[in-house]
Amino acid sequence: MDFAPSPMAEHIVRTHFGIEPARRSLRAEEVVLYLLLEVTEAAELWGQRGYLARAVSFGPHGICDEGIVPLQHFVDAPGPDAVAIVQETDAHGQHRPVVYLHRAGNVTEHVLSVHPLFDCRTLDHQAQLPSALAGLI
Description:
By secondary structure, the chain is α+β, with helices and mostly antiparallel strands.
């Protein structure tokens, strides 16, 4: 059985001990569907809405899955160009995917549309996300 450390444990190991966990590389054409699949199915993102996010970085060594990360750290900490996707609950109680883009030291937020069955792999979402990632993939 594989053991996957919790996102918080990985964050502590990385920030306090300087140990970087192994991360898988992604091809540019995989990024959109990967992020939409994660925001649809990842239990961590649904269990900790608005707190945990799936992050992908874009750096000199390619595109890298950064795992599940605390959203606040992603937004506040300096780092490479990256994207994080999270499930958030809006003021009306609707669950919706939100994309945070970390580019050249600035963070922007892109709210994606709501789906009645919370499926973010739709053609509509597949059209929305690339526009937010323009210039990165």
